[in-house]
Amino acid sequence: MTRGKITYLDGIRLHRALTAGVRQLLSRQGHLNRINVFPIPDGDTGTNLSFTLLFILDNTSRRVQVHAGRTAVAIADAALDGARGCSGVILAQFFQGFSDSCADLHQLNVPQFTQATETGYEYAYQALSEPVDGTILSVIKATVDGFKERTREGVNDFMLLLKETMGRAEEALRRTPEQLEILRKRGVVDAGGQGFVYILRGMLDFVMRGSLRSRWRPEKILPSAELPEPVLARPAAGTDLRYCTECLVLGRDIPRNKLREAIMGLGDSLILGGSKERVRLHIHTNEPQAVFDTVRTYGQLTDEKVDDMQRQTATARTARKGVAVVTDSTADIPVELIEAYDIHVVPLKLHFGNKGYIDKVSITPDEFFQELAINPHHPHTSQPTPGDFWRTYQFLASHYDSIVSLHVSRALSGTLQSAENATRRLPDAHISVLDCNNATVGLGLIAVSAAKVAMEGKSHEEVLSVARAAVNQTVFYAVVKDLSSVVRGGRVPPAYKVIADVLRAVLVLSMTAKGKVKLAGVFFGRRDTTRGLAKWVARHIDLDQTYDVFISHSQSFEEAQRLAGLLPELGLRINQLHITDTGAVIGAHAGSGSLILAVQPVRISRKGIPQGDPFGIGLA
């Protein structure tokens, strides 16, 4: 049953209408990911729009005001803070223009609403360095043109305004393949434009059927105007640029035109939106840190985000898979194995004073240790946010049946807690989060073990069982050249350093069953710690077993190679051995010159039962 005229929107009505639109989009985010082919076929438009819009609801729902303008400003501020991806940033800029147009209005009538949407479109258009027809921008323009026509005709009922403009928006969406060749070839409409139509559809259904006095949830999804599902053979991305890079800049009187000029040469798909005090930036680039360093000269940098579009495109290009394996950047894994076994990594962050980096993305291990040697500030590390995991899980849930997420021990980092918090926001996704009670190459070996069986097509429970068995059977040993950093970070007691200094001994560090760093042993011979570590390991593991071995090093590659050669000489049976760099987050605690070795017996039970007890640690 439809209602009578709606001649005004106050803040509560405006927010509830938007909420209905958001829920309509959320119900189809997987489809948006699947039809995402422009500007890059990386399959994340649904995820990015969902993150942006949910961020708005999370940050405005408890402080909605009757005043329409103030509610619009709150929506715009939240959109700017939470914007992700091209379409998300464009939508945030649309809300920014909308709010600027009506900030002082207690209520919005149809002409005022129409004027606000026209300003929103103008802001969104101006935010793009190279606007392209056939995108979300085209659908927004057609919608605004429809509003203007209906308003000139004297329409003063929001229900009629939306109802009579809906066809205009859907027609613009259907025409996007005529405007963009890549859409025509794939037989799809623009994903961002489709998302905008979903929002409009939800708002229309709300004003026709929802209650203006209570929170409302749509009972069903209205018939879709999108074209059929795309075929799975996707063309390669049309750019050699790898990273979708975003950040928020805070300041006073930020010169957006100068900022735009400063970063235009660093990539393409540049979108710059916001206000003089808050600017959201989006760009595709191969140099994310160069972008961040340039932007930092214009204001305070926050909310840095970098997505690997090549990895996302590879994931989106293939047929739906079984189990996705996720880990975090404390796992030191050779790059070639990450790609070979399709492992997805959520990075931690680190800071030298006020300058921030994204581990293994905007700073390489070599760059980190060079900075460590000269920077007067000791680096501080920070865990990924629940939002970082939410975006990763949402994207993967569109392309995999389930997710096994393997992380650094709870005792060492809040990373695991962030992952667990993210899963609570995704009750319909099949996600298992596991505390691996390990880190660095130990965590790397565990993740690779799970990823191998996932690639074999094993079930979720089988992959999880192998991961649990690997947790019980994987041990890392580390020798740290200077214990000062690891003591300063609180990972080991100060007494460890005192013991090492007084006895002039080398401490071998490992992990307890509960994931804390422990003193595993001591040997003497600081002049040749590499041989000392090799001999110590050979004495403390079962030499009748065969092992997979990972070695990581902090600016000591030659010693890592030497360690790899000494192990078989001392009787260690090696199935495969890989050497990799110690990442920046681990390096912040281990310091330069460290060697870390992880061993895992080749036979890992697929029922989760360890095969023997090769480390003598009393496994059941």
Describe the structure.
With 620 residues, this protein is an alpha/beta fold. Among the domains are: 11-209, DhaL domain (Serine Threonine Protein Phosphatase 5, Tetratricopeptide repeat, Alpha Horseshoe), CATH 1.25.40; 242-313, 2-Layer Sandwich (Alpha-Beta Plaits); 474-601, 2-Layer Sandwich (Hypothetical Protein Tm841, Chain: A,domain 3). It is built from 24 helices and 17 strands. A four-stranded antiparallel beta sheet has the order 2-3-1-4, sandwiched between helices. Helix 3 (45-60) packs across helix 4 (68-82), helix 3 (45-60) packs across helix 16 and helix 6 (110-127) runs antiparallel to helix 7 (136-152). The termini are far apart.
Structure keywords:
620 residues; alpha/beta; Serine Threonine Protein Phosphatase 5, Tetratricopeptide repeat; Alpha-Beta Plaits; Hypothetical Protein Tm841, Chain: A,domain 3; 4-stranded antiparallel β-sheet; 24 helices; disordered C terminus
Indicate the topology.
Elements lengths: L10 H16 L2 H6 L10 H16 L7 H15 L2 H18 L7 H18 L8 H17 L5 H22 L1 H6 L4 H19 L33 E8 L5 H8 L3 E8 L3 E8 L2 H9 L3 E9 H9 L3 E8 L6 H6 L2 E4 L2 E4 L2 E4 L6 H10 L5 E3 L3 H12 L2 E8 L7 H10 L6 E5 L4 H16 L4 H14 L1 E5 L4 H5 L5 H10 L1 E7 L5 E8 L4 H12 L5 E8 L3 H13 L3 E9 L2 H7 L4 E7 L19
Parallel strand pairs: 5-6, 5-10, 10-11, 15-16
Antiparallel strand pairs: 1-3, 1-4, 2-3, 7-8, 7-9, 12-17, 13-14, 15-17
Q: Would you summarize the structure shown here?
A:
This protein has 620 residues and is of the alpha/beta class. The protein is built from 24 helices and 17 strands. It has a 4-stranded antiparallel β-sheet, sandwiched between helices.
